[in-house]
Amino acid sequence: MAAPRSSGCAHCGNKAALKRPKTGERVCKECFFRLFEDEIHETIVSAGLFRRGQKVAIAASGGKDSTVLAHTVTLLNARHDYGLDLCLLSIDEGIKGYRDDSLETVKRNAEQYGLPLRVLSYQELYGWTMDEIVEAIGKSNNCTFCGVFRRQALDRGAQLLGVETIVTGHNADDIAETVLMNLLRGDIGRLPRSTHILTGSSEDGEAITRSKPFKYTYEKEIVMYAHFKKLDYFSTECVYAPNAYRGFAREYLKDVERVRPSAILDIIRSGESFAVADTAGARQAPAGACARCGYIASQELCKACVLLATLNSGRSKQTLELECEPGEPGLSAGTADGAEPQQ
Hints:
Helix content: 40-55%
Number of strands: 10
Strand content: 5-15%
């Protein structure tokens, strides 16, 4: 007869409060907090994400990922004396009933963690809100526009704040989804970059780097951490997200995770180990400057200016949909990492 399963914490022996999705260990809350924070610290240190004295912007949306990111980076900065100058940077896409509500959470987070906050809007930068864009083009390709605009907006915000790097709440699930999306699209040239924990360099033509301290952190554990810590976050999904291509990769990943919890990290490790032939990598053109706005571009115009031109020209919805067809290499990805999930 098999011995009954112990109800004690695998690390301290006290009563377990949860089973970690990442490892399957049964742990108490205090040990879970310590393990969660220590693993993120190890990721930051081993990857050399920061250096003392850096001004760092935390991309803040008010969602679980960015709220836990703001909490843990602030905590670890103090605990381990990183010596970082932290601030919050938030982008208002102009989605009524979603972003306007989540920004209230961001404002509370700024007060809770004592961090300065800067908010930039699509309306301010591009003259369009996402609600207006969706009204013009429909819902089938809106994530393409949002991904491109959001990435550029974060970079412009970082420039205004004088920061050197942006930290984002992309977690292990997000990165595994991006690997799957690039494979499904046949976009093999993006695979190596899609798993990078640090992107943006002078070689890429980018002055502002981006880092992902949650690269190996499971989404379920982020939710557990936020729940047990009673953190203040906004939990409503973007009203346009159900139409995103990423959603199909997300559902598949969840199905695989139920059978094999390690699948998320396995997919990331596979992406990291992928060897791409020179002919595949050649699809990535050298970075230059956009002739219209000066932003990073691999063509004469950056992706944002190309999309803005289609919007401002007043072309029909059908024409816009054809130009933004998901298979098109230049526009389908939204960002260098694939269309960014809302953090």
